[in-house]
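Help needed: design a sequence for this.
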């Protein structure tokens, strides 16, 4: 069992709070770690440490090349520890080995990407009236508060830590309470490669204490949050005290539109991947499948036939294709939504139950679940379930597909399947979402911006946009003729 610790000012610390957090493997109930629940005072201390480290210039004054060297080393270490990190992520989160493998590989890629990006030109100059030369430089914001969810514990941490450090900020990072294990390994790596003391700090604990303190603090200059829309709203309010910069990556209920002229097997295959990858605990999941009337029944039949064959089981077991739900609380929430769907009159076409056979009763597993005959006003169509539950809706034509797709408070992701390229592009351009695919679903690239429209968030992670979240922009005007302005006569 792991004894997790906070990392403040380059020291590993057990929390002063005797109330610790027990971390379980959701596939079998095994106790895998004990983590601190830091107090408000400890969180405030970490913020002060980060503030002093920022002001000292120990990190922000390094050249981009020097900072990049650290980030490249972190990427190398992540790859060296690939097997250990994959296994720990599976035991902590419940996902499959294949899924965790992608996360760990992407984490290394993300550090390398930002190491490279930070050394590319990023300034601008302007031809303003003589004798002034105007230019723009980018600077770190200061102390970055980073708060992440449990569904991609390592990867979501890296999506924030890599650009924040690349840009020269110091950080106070908080992992999710249910999945803090790989974060500890990541901070061990940061220590090993020699990130200076006080630059990177980690505080584990409750959202309502550690997270809230970070979001409220007047000494935190930017807060970057990934999690639910509900908590995103709290972050926005808390951040208003000192008007800190915010970046919010929130929930979704994303449409996946299948036209009759799509390549049928490709559409079915990606639709399955879109919702059942990560057992549906993916913000961008294609949880609303919209199918053109003429192929609807055929699609549903084939989709269900294939969904039935998905092998649900512990992530470390050979052959498991869909892993566990992260916690009992999350499982209960998903099962409650399935009941709501039934009560609302949707047709439960597949699944709907907890799986308990063949030893699965020790963990939290839910069958791939499909609702058909749904209407847009149902809660199962509008609300994020965050589990292996999909709703399939029919549409008549292009206009109705777009109208149904956009009938949501969310706007995170969306897909279109059609072999008519012009139609696919026409439709995806009308879908009010930040991350979209044509004839695919889910692939994500570190180079491309990630984030949502509407209540799915503010700002973008990844790519150059992800770096901008952690940068201030300064104009510098240089007088090239050093003489008095002469505005006043005396
Ligand atoms: P959550 O909002 O419950 O928690 C996220 C983090 O916020 C956790 O670390 C939690 O401890 C902390 N927190 C909770 N209350 C807080 C408060 N009052 N102040 C500050 N911090 C607080 O989310 P979750 O259940 O861990 O994750 C699932 C959610 O995350 C889903 O809604 C999903 O869509 C979303 N998500 C979005 C993206 C994206 O890129 N848009 C990616 C992954 C997950």
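Sure. Designed sequence:
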């Amino acid at each position: 069992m792991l004894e997790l610790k906070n990392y403040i000012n380059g020291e590993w610390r057990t929390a002063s709070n005797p109330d610790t957090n027990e971390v379980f493997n959701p596939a079998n109930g095994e106790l895998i770690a004990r983590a601190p629940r830091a107090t408000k005072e400890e969180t405030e201390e970490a913020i002060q440490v980060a503030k002093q480290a920022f002001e000292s210039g120990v990190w922000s004054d390094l050249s981009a090349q020097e900072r990049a060297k650290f980030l490249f080393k972190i990427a190398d270490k992540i790859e060296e520890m690939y097997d250990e990190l994959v296994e720990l992520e599976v035991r902590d989160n419940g996902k499959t080995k294949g899924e965790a493998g992608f996360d760990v590989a992407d984490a290394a890629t993300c550090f390398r990407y930002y190491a490279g990006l930070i050394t590319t030109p990023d300034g601008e100059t302007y031809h303003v009236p003589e004798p002034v030369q105007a230019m723009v430089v980018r600077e770190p914001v200061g102390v970055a508060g980073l708060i992440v969810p449990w569904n991609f514990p390592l990867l979501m941490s890296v999506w924030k830590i890599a650009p924040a450090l690349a840009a020269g900020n110091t950080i106070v990072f908080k992992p999710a309470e249910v999945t803090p294990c790989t974060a500890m390994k990541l901070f061990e790596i940061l220590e090993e490669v020699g990130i200076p003391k006080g630059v990177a700090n980690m505080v584990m604990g409750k959202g309502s204490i550690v997270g809230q303190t970070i979001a409220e603090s007047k000494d935190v200059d930017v807060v970057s949050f990934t999690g639910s829309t509900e908590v995103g709203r709290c972050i926005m309010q808390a951040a208003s005290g000192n008007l800190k910069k915010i970046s919010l990556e929130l929930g979704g209920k994303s449409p996946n539109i299948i036209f009759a002229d799509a390549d049928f097997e490709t559409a079915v295959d990606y639709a399955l991947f879109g919702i059942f990858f990560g057992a549906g605990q993916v913000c961008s999941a294609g949880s609303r499948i919209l199918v053109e009337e003429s192929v609807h029944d055929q699609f549903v039949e084939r989709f269900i036939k294939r969904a039935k064959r998905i092998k649900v089981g512990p992530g470390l077991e050979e052959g498991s294709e869909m892993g566990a739900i992260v916690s009992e609380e999350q499982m209960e929430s998903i099962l409650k939504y399935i009941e709501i769907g039934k009560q609302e009159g949707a047709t439960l076409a597949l699944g709907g139950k907890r799986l308990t056979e063949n030893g699965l009763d020790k963990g939290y597993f839910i069958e791939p679940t499909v609702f058909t005959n749904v209407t847009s006003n149902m809660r199962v169509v509008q609300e994020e379930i965050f589990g292996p539950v999909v709703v399939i809706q029919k549409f008549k034509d292009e206009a109705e597909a777009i109208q149904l797709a956009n009938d949501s408070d969310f706007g995170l992701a969306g897909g279109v399947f059609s072999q008519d390229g012009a139609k696919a592009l026409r439709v995806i351009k009308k879908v009010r979402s930040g991350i979209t695919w044509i004839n695919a679903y889910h692939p994500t690239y570190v180079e491309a911006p990630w984030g949502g429209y509407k209540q799915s968030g503010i700002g973008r992670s990844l790519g150059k946009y992800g770096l901008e979240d952690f940068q201030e922009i300064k104009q510098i005007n240089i007088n090239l003729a050093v003489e008095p302005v002469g505005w006043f006569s005396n």
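The radius of gyration is 24 Å.
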